[in-house]
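> example.struct
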């Protein structure tokens, strides 16, 4: 039976301690924040988890810890991408053993725009983890191939195990519309791109969104407002949070972790990922943008 993966599924970041290793004490706090915020599930690891910097044993240990700590309170999607489909399947199996409801996978850059190569890759992954739903992640270059909606639909039709798509190529909303029209057999298409286009995506039929974690409470409230038909509240939350999410485009996980630090969920915003680091003026601006978002955040922090 295919899991229901509808709603807000934030990608958990990987917290690091003073020794540079994953912080096993901070990780459960992030999980509990997501649960308390009222999201419908979580994702780990993804690009927002600095997955490319994690050693195999770190990755496996954190996935297992996630499953133990969640203890079935929420479904989770395991990130399982790898250039080698056999290794991707092994990562998906690690997730399934920890309780994952689905595996999110992106084909390697070598597959490019070749739909036959893409389909062969996903078929090999699915064969290695039978029975687990696959979520095709379609991201723009350089991380992904930036497949067209028609190409995504063709690959999904060729590999029945692909039940969901995470779509984050521009224009995101239009692509959601086109994928749903071309592949009506799918169980859903989720938006990505940091929830910067979430209202357009939901209006076009997206079954949810996959943002970073730092304002999961606001995103959960936006989803509930949208589902209840309260478009005005959804728009108010979106308008208050969008400036912060736009700034996050530049500093990515470092901005996410800085906000989580300021909200009392992390002791450190340290990151391993490549990319620009905020300087003193950037940190000041993050403070202003967080203040703009504060009216739609919950204080004190939600807890399970």
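> example.seq
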């Amino acid at each position: 039976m295919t899991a229901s993966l509808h709603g807000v599924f934030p990608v958990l970041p990987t917290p690091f301690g003073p020794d540079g290793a994953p912080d096993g004490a901070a990780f459960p706090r992030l999980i509990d924040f997501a649960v308390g915020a009222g999201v419908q599930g979580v994702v780990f690891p993804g690009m927002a988890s600095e997955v490319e910097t994690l050693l195999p044993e770190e990755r496996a240990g954190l996935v297992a810890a996630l499953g133990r700590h969640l203890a079935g309170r929420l479904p989770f999607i395991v990130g399982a991408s790898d250039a080698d489909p056999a290794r991707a399947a092994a990562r998906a199996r690690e997730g399934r053993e920890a309780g994952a409801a689905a595996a999110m996978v992106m084909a390697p850059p070598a597959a490019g725009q070749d739909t036959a190569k893409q389909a062969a890759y996903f078929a090999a992954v699915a064969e290695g983890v039978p029975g687990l739903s696959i979520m095709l992640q379609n991201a723009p270059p350089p991380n992904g191939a930036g497949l067209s909606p028609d190409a995504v639909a063709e690959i999904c039709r060729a590999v029945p195990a692909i039940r969901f798509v995470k779509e984050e190529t521009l224009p995101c909303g239009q692509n959601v519309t086109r994928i749903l029209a071309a592949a009506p057999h799918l169980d859903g298409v989720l938006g990505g791109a940091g929830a910067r286009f979430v209202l357009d995506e939901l209006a076009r039929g997206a079954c949810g969104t996959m943002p970073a974690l730092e304002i999961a409470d606001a995103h959960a409230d936006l989803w509930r407002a949208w589902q209840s038909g309260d478009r005005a509240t959804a728009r108010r939350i979106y308008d208050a949070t969008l400036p912060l999410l736009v700034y996050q485009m530049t500093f990515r996980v470092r901005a996410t972790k800085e906000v989580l630090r300021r909200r009392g969920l992390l002791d450190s915003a340290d990151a391993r990922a490549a990319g620009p680091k905020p300087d003193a003026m950037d940190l000041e601006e993050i403070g202003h943008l967080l203040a703009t978002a504060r009216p739609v955040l919950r204080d004190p922090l939600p807890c399970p």
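> remarks
The radius of gyration is 18 Å.
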